[in-house]
Amino acid sequence: MAPRIVLLPGDGIGPEISESARRALDALGEFEFDEREFGGASIDEHGTALTDDVLEACRQADAVLLAAVGGPKWDTTDPQAPRPEQGLLGLRKGLGLYANLRPVKPSEALIGASPLRDERIRGTDLLVVRELTGGIYFGESGRDGDRAHDDCAYTVEEIERITRVAFDAARRRRKKVTSVDKANVLETSRLWRETVTRVAEEYPDVELEHLLVDNAAMQLVSEPTRFDVIVTENLFGDILSDEAAMLTGSLGMLPSASLGGEGPGLFEPVHGSAPDIAGKGIANPLAMLLSAALMLRHGLDMAAEADALDAAVEGVLADGLRTADLAGGGASVGTEEITDAVVARLQGS
Fold first, then answer.
1. Residue 12, CB-side half-sphere exposure with 13 Å CA sphere
2. pLDDT tier for residue 8 given thresholds of 50, 70 and 90
3. Which of 85, 143, 184, 250 is the most buried (most CB within 10 A)?
4. CA–CA separation, 316 and 337 (whole Å)
């Protein structure tokens, strides 16, 4: 049977780049797509960012491929109002996805697009492993008059499982883990550091270092090549992974994978929904295509097809094709044109 993929186009540029992913995957093999509303589009139609039916469909799928969620249309400070991002948090929780993997390896053809000097960025190849289901995003929160609170909490079990994901990944890479916390201030970070240190004893072949989050943020810019695998909690991971993403010169180039236990994984580009360019045909679909490659590799056990898609993306960049976000004011092509070029490479044209 063909792998069943729930496709969640979402909002903004999501439908455009979803179509790019569908075309690329169709060029690689047979897949069954189940397209569903999600995020702001689901709020408009159903009053909630994630319906029970969509969550159940995702649970029954072999993989879930998400494009983008959110936009100013749904921005609100009303704590009772539905928000598109609630769909993403609910999906991660509902599928038991506790580990977010964000690889950062600038394309050789795009070294010049990085805001850092060539000699600083060249050779960067790191993986941010972010804990997804604990921390401040899932703690108790509320307001009492002119006071508000958001509680951050972690258990030893939550820290142990994300640590093992990071160390297992490091074993397949360059065998170094950098654990990022704020142990000089936060009690949760002190528990984090103690637990990571203890789990590291199970991996004597992997080097462990601890960095405070502010120091890590500085070193990502000053010396990104020093990092192999970075493991950190939810909020720090959210911030650091976006910082690391900009090392490549564009958020339009970064994929991600969210993994958990026995159920399907969730695969999505790091960038947002870019509502300012939605419908203009100029969105960069490459992060979506690279997310599809991660899905093939980590979600569907189709390594050869993943390699082919990665190579096709790298090939069109080597040929000089650039979407507007990568062109630096120079000549650019649109979403459909760069997708055509990727598909042509996959078909051997």
1. 23
2. very high
3. 250
4. 11
Domains along the sequence of the chain with CATH: 1-103+250-349 (3.40.718.10), 115-248 (3.40.718.10)
- For residue 135, give every residue at least 6 positions away whose Cβ sits within 8 Å of its Cβ, in sequence order, or none: 152, 153, 154, 188, 233, 234, 235
pLDDT tens, position by position, 237-263? 999 988 888 787 666 688 999 998 778
Catalytic annotation, residues: 137, 182, 214, 238, 242
> CB–CB of 188/199 below 8 Å?
no
Q: Which long-range contacts (CB under 8 A, 24 or more apart) does 172-177 make?
A: 173/125, 173/127, 173/228, 173/229, 174/228, 175/205, 175/206, 175/207, 175/228, 176/206, 176/207, 176/208, 176/209, 176/227, 176/228, 176/229, 177/206, 177/207, 177/208, 177/209, 177/228, 177/229, 177/230, 177/231
Percent of residues, the chain, with pLDDT higher than 70:
99
CA distance 313 to 15: 20
d(Cα 210, Cα 197) in Å, to the nearest integer? 9
pLDDT of residue 153 exceeding 70:
yes
Strands (DSSP E) contained in the chain are 4-10, 32-35, 63-68, 99-104, 126-131, 141-144, 147-150, 176-181, 207-212, 229-232, 255-259, 266-269
CA distance linking residue 54 with residue 91, whole number of Å: 9
pTM for the whole structure: 0.83
- The residue with tokens 């909002």 is 11
